[in-house]
Design a protein that fits this description.
mainly alpha, 24 helices, transmembrane, globular, single chain
C-alpha cells in the first residue's frame, strides 16, 4: 500500500503521526463549513446589517466580502498544501519567515490565532445561548405578552452547558466527530435554503425594489455618511466568513491532507458565500418595518432575525410557533458550529504545545486511547467559558473581547500570506495545490484587504463617543499585540525556537 501523501509530507516536515488520520475530503470540508456557519453569523448580526445600510449593505456587501475572503482562502490553501500540519498558520509563518525571523513570526501568528479561535468559540456558543433565551421568550408570549426573559446569569449558564456538551462530543473518536461535522454541515446548508419559506409564509412581503435598492441611513448612532454606514454594514458579512482555516488544523487527521486540506478551505468559503447570499436574499423579502425589527421593545426584545420569523408566522396563522421552530432549526446548525469550533481550538492548542509555545506542555500534548488531544479539548472549553464571563460585567467589554474573533483571526490569516509574498517569495516550494504565477498577486490583494478591514472595523460605530459607545476593537487587538510582543521580548525569545521536529523520537522508538 502506498503511503498517504499527507502523512508522507508530515514526516518530511519532521513530525510523527500521533492523531488518527481518518478524515475524508468531505469530512474536512464539513468541519470548516460548520464553523463558518452562515446561519450563526447572519442571525446574530442581522440587526447590525439592518441598522447600518439595510438591504443594500448586505445584499451587495456579502458578495464583496465573499470575493476578497475567497482570495484570502486561496492564498491560505496554497500554503496549506505545502505545509499540511495541524500547526497551521503559526507553522507556515515559521517556515516562510526563515531561520532568523521564523520564531518571532511563529510566536505572534500562533497567539493571535489561538486567542482568536477561543474568542470565536465563545461568540458562537454565546449567540446560541442568546438564541435559546429568545426562543423561550417567544414561546411564553413574547416581551409584550408577559413572556419569560432570562437574566444574564441564565444566559451564561446556558453558554456553559453548551460548552460542556461540546467538550464531551470532542472527547469522542475522530470518526464520531467526522459524522457530527457532516451532520452540522448538512444542517447549515439545508437551513439556509429552508429559510426561503419565511417570505412565502408572511402575508406581506417586501418588494424587489426594497430588497435591491433600499439603503437605511436612519440609525440612532449619529452616523450620516452613507459610505461610512455601508462600511459598518460590511461587518456582518466579514465576521460571518471566518473559521475556514479549521481545514488546516485537521491536516494531521485528514487523508492526503496536502490535497484535501486546501480543497476543504476553498470549498467551505465558496459554498458558504453561495448559501449565505441565498439566505440573505430570502430573509430580506420578509423584512417590512426596520425600526420595529431593531426596537428593544418588540416581542423578541430586539433580536431582529427572531422578530422576522415570529412576525411572518403570526401574520399568517395568528401565532408565532412556526417562527420558533425555524429558530430551533437555526439553533441546531449553530450548535454544531460550536462543536466544530472547539475541535479546531483543541487541535491548534495541541500543536502549539507540541512545538513548545504553550504553558503546561506535557499536559496539553496528551493524546488519549482514541487518539484525541483530550486535555487540549477541555482546556479550550474552559478558556471559552471564562471569556464569556466578561458579559456579566459589561456587554461592551464582551463585544470588544469577541471582536478579536474577527480582526485577530484575520491578522493571523494575513501574516503567513504576507511572509509568502515577501521573505518567502523565492524559497517557497508549492504543494499539489498552487496558484502558479498568480500566487503573488492574489497574496498581495488578500493582505491589502485584511489591512483595510482591520482599519475600518476599528473606527467608531456611534457618535458622540463615550465610554459606552467607544469601539474597543483596537484596544482589545492592541492589548493582545502588546502582551504577545512583551512576552516575546522578556521571555519567549530565550527559549522558543519555532516548531520542533519530533521525528527523531519516532525513529528512536522504532529502533
Amino acid at each position: 500500500m502506498s503511503l498517504d501523501s499527507g502523512k508522507a509530507r508530515l514526516q518530511e516536515l519532521g513530525y510523527k503521526q500521533e492523531l488518527k488520520r481518518d478524515l475524508s475530503v468531505v469530512s474536512n470540508f464539513a468541519i470548516s463549513f460548520s464553523i463558518v456557519s452562515v446561519i450563526t453569523g447572519l442571525n446574530g448580526l442581522m440587526g447590525t446589517g439592518l441598522n447600518f445600510g439595510g438591504p443594500v449593505s448586505y445584499i451587495y456587501g456579502w458578495p464583496i466580502a465573499g470575493t476578497f475572503t475567497m482570495l484570502i482562502g486561496l492564498s491560505m490553501a496554497e500554503i496549506c498544501s505545502a505545509y499540511p500540519t495541524s500547526g497551521g498558520l503559526y507553522y507556515w509563518s515559521a517556515k516562510l519567515a526563515g531561520p532568523t525571523w521564523g520564531p518571532f513570526a511563529s510566536w505572534i501568528t500562533g497567539w493571535f490565532n489561538i486567542i482568536g479561535q477561543w474568542a470565536l468559540t465563545t461568540s458562537v456558543d454565546f449567540s446560541l445561548a442568546q438564541l435559546v433565551q429568545v426562543m423561550i421568550l417567544l414561546s411564553t408570549g413574547g416581551l409584550n405578552g408577559g413572556g419569560y426573559q432570562a437574566s444574564k446569569y441564565v444566559v451564561i449558564a446556558l453558554h456553559g452547558g453548551f460548552l460542556l456538551l461540546h467538550a464531551i462530543l470532542n472527547s469522542l473518536p475522530i470518526s464520531w466527530l467526522s459524522f457530527f461535522g457532516q451532520v452540522g454541515a448538512a444542517c447549515n446548508f439545508l437551513g439556509c435554503f429552508l429559510m426561503i419559506v419565511i417570505p412565502t409564509v408572511a402575508t406581506e412581503r417586501a418588494s424587489a425594489k426594497f430588497v435591491f435598492t433600499n439603503f437605511n441611513a436612519d440609525n440612532a448612532d449619529g452616523i450620516n455618511n452613507k459610505f461610512y454606514i455601508f462600511i459598518l454594514g460590511l461587518l456582518m458579512s466579514q465576521f460571518t466568513l471566518t473559521g475556514y482555516d479549521a481545514s488546516a488544523y485537521m491536516s494531521d487527521e485528514t487523508k492526503d491532507a496536502d490535497k484535501n486540506g486546501p480543497k476543504g478551505i476553498v470549498s467551505a468559503i465558496g459554498i458558504s458565500v453561495i448559501a449565505g447570499w441565498v439566505y440573505i436574499l430570502g430573509i430580506t423579502f420578509a423584512v417590512r418595518d426596520i425600526p420595529n425589527l431593531l426596537s428593544e421593545n418588540n416581542d423578541s426584545g430586539g433580536h431582529a432575525i427572531a422578530q422576522i420569523f415570529y412576525e411572518a408566522f403570526k401574520s399568517r396563522y395568528g401565532n408565532g410557533v412556526g417562527g420558533v421552530i425555524c429558530l430551533g432549526i437555526s439553533g441546531i446548525a449553530i450548535f454544531f458550529a460550536g462543536m466544530s469550533s472547539l475541535t479546531s481550538n483543541s487541535r491548534i492548542a495541541y500543536a502549539f504545545s507540541r512545538d513548545g509555545a504553550m504553558p503546561y506542555l506535557s499536559f496539553l500534548q496528551k493524546v488519549n486511547k482514541q487518539e484525541v488531544p483530550i486535555n487540549a479539548v477541555w482546556m479550550s472549553a474552559l478558556v471559552a467559558f471564562c471569556m464569556a464571563l466578561t458579559s456579566l460585567g459589561s456587554l461592551v467589554a464582551f463585544e470588544a473581547m469577541t471582536s478579536i474573533a474577527t480582526i485577530g483571526l484575520y491578522i493571523a490569516y494575513a501574516l503567513p500570506i504576507f511572509l509568502r509574498v515577501t521573505l518567502g517569495r523565492k524559497s517557497f516550494t508549492p504543494g499539489p495545490f498552487n496558484l502558479g504565477k498568480y500566487g503573488i498577486l492574489v497574496g498581495w490583494i488578500a493582505v491589502s484587504w485584511v489591512v483595510l478591514i482591520s482599519v475600518l472595523f476599528s473606527l467608531p460605530v456611534s457618535y458622540p463617543i463615550t465610554d459606552q459607545t467607544l469601539n474597543y476593537t483596537p484596544v482589545a487587538v492592541g492589548g493582545v499585540l502588546a502582551i504577545v510582543i512583551i512576552s516575546w521580548n522578556f521571555s519567549a525569545r530565550h527559549w522558543f525556537k519555532g516548531p520542533v521536529k519530533n521525528i527523531e523520537e519516532c525513529s528512536n522508538e522504532k529502533a
